[in-house]
Automatic annotation (TrEMBL):
Domain Nudix hydrolase: 28-160
InterPro entries, sorted: CoAse, NUDIX_hydrolase-like_dom_sf, NUDIX_hydrolase_dom
The protein, known as: Coenzyme A pyrophosphatase
Cross-referenced NCBIfam families: PRK10707.1
Pfam families, A to Z: NUDIX
Keywords: Hydrolase, Magnesium, Manganese, Metal-binding
Cofactor: Mn(2+); Mg(2+)
Length: 195
């Protein structure tokens, strides 16, 4: 998918039907992530990171650049851009922000606001080793194919939870990151003859 088609599909599709996980809850810690899309050879790729194994929370998991919304952040967009700059060296001035998705609530106590943006120019990765073990890209077309997006149910503390999973090469993308990717792909699923 090219940038022009992505912009059109992103802007046309209604967000009226929300996932139950997006409904507001009280007492959740607020966070923001950047769904950064980069044009590589005429095809959009998602930028993803892998968390280091030494972290207490979610060690080794694949995630988007992002983190907790700090008091100095004016909003979720500012937080996502700040975190991406700190974690992978993606300057906030190098991102064309298209908008946000409604917050995604996790059963681990976070309300995550996904911020969608296009990387304007190629940039040199500068990883913060305290936050990021690796950074890589995945073609958006891989995720748009529904056969690559799966949903499993797990029992935790007496409740069943739906968990999205998306294996990609040697990576295993799951949880909130996979759920947000699934939401993005459903957002883009306007039939081609409608555009």
């Amino acid at each position: 998918m090219e940038i022009a088609e992505f912009r059109l599909r992103f802007n046309l599709h209604s967000l009226a039907l929300q996932d139950p996980a997006a409904f507001p809850h009280i007492g959740l810690r607020k966070a923001a992530v950047l769904i950064a899309l980069q044009d590589i050879g005429g095809e959009l790729h998602l930028i993803l990171t892998q968390r280091p194994m030494h972290l207490r929370a979610h060690p080794g998991q694949v995630s988007f650049p992002g983190g907790k919304i700090e008091p100095e952040d004016v909003n979720a967009i500012a937080a996502a851009l700040r975190e991406a700059e700190e974690e992978i060296g993606l300057s906030r001035n190098n991102v064309d922000v298209l908008g946000t998705f409604p917050p995604y609530n996790t059963f681990t106590g976070f309300e995550i606001t996904p911020v969608v943006g296009i990387v304007k120019q190629t940039f040199v990765l500068k990883l913060d080793p305290g936050e990021v073990a690796d950074c890589f890209t995945v073609p958006l077309s891989f995720f748009i194919d529904p056969s690559h997006r799966h949903q499993k149910f797990f029992l935790r503390q007496g409740h069943y939870y739906s968990v999205h999973v998306m294996p990609y090469q040697q990576r295993f993308i799951w949880g909130a990151t996979a759920a947000i990717i699934d939401h993005l792909c459903r957002q883009l699923s306007i039939p081609a003859d409608f555009i």
